[in-house]
Amino acid sequence: MADVVAADGKVAIIQPLPGVGDMVWHLPHIHALAEAQPEGAVAVITKPRSRADQLFAADPAVSEVIWLDRAQDGNGGAHDGVLGVLRLARLLRSQHFRRVYVLHHSWRYACAAWLAGIPERFGYGMGRQRRFLNRVPFLPEAMRRDHPLDLATAWLKAAGIAQPEQEPLLRLDPAAVAQAQAAYADRPRPWIALGLGSSEPYKQWGAERYAALAAALSEAGWGTFFLLGGPDEKPFLPAIRAALGDDPGRLVQSFDMKMGEILAFLGAMDLYVGNDTSFLNLAAASGVPAIGLFGATPPLTHSTAITALLPPDGVPDKADGMMRITVEAVMEAVAAHKAKSNG
């Protein structure tokens, strides 16, 4: 290991899980660690798929986002393998960090921090990772397979670091939010977001069901429908448009929008309904009541804003679980939410 860097440098958090949802789960922990620093802010080191640059664009707790370059979509990354650890160490050293928190049990990020000469190295301390850390506490090896959110929460508790936010909370630019919401101010209320995207085929409810749901919601009095997804969900549009009739003002699609643009209006939704995907986590973290369709995956429990809808037998199944969630069941959940809101 080279000489340690100066003790007056920056503070970093390494959160290497790749998804947007993974980053949203860690919002309370990132905010807590930032508040525990004299400067009140940290650098977040993560993977590009997390969209952390857009999630934290207006968050004062995050001073900068630095990308990990790991293998993605079959393409190798600069930080893969043994040479990749050395390259990552060189990157970390160039940033002059005085302290790093590794919110993962992998040894490679702790090793890179050690090679970079970062004076204070915190982490979960499982397996080989412990060799490269020099600050406690460590979590027991038995927790290795626990949910990432539970690991981060347990570590903060063991470290005696207060966690003011018990649920994820996005911090957005109020001016950008006001501007985005003003752009749709003439659209009929109430507003509902339909989360059409899915990271895996078995999480997808399908265009036909979403079109039928849109028709039922329209009949029930919902005003404007915001379709959340990416380019892969564009084929959903004709069926949903047909289900809503000929009024284009009741439909807003975001398939070509950047995530930052979507976040600016997402918090104005009256309800979110959609697949177990990143937008479900983002809606909940924006304070929007969210009904998640968990036909194929275990329901998320990190946010009280999320209502989990499972197949009739209550058992998620990748084979046909999503197909066993009916439009009628979703409408019952929507009606229950509306009754609760009005009560």
UniProtKB/TrEMBL annotation:
Gene3D superfamilies: Glycogen Phosphorylase B. InterPro entries: Glyco_trans_9, LPS_LOS_Heptosyltrfase. Keywords: Glycosyltransferase, Transferase. GO terms for cellular component: cytosol. GO terms for biological process: lipopolysaccharide core region biosynthetic process. It holds the Pfam family Glyco_transf_9. CDD domains: GT9_LPS_heptosyltransferase (cd03789). The keyword Nucleotidyltransferase does not apply. One of its GO terms (molecular function) is ADP-heptose-lipopolysaccharide heptosyltransferase activity. It comes from the Bacteria. This is Glycosyl transferase family protein. It comes from Oceanibaculum indicum P24.
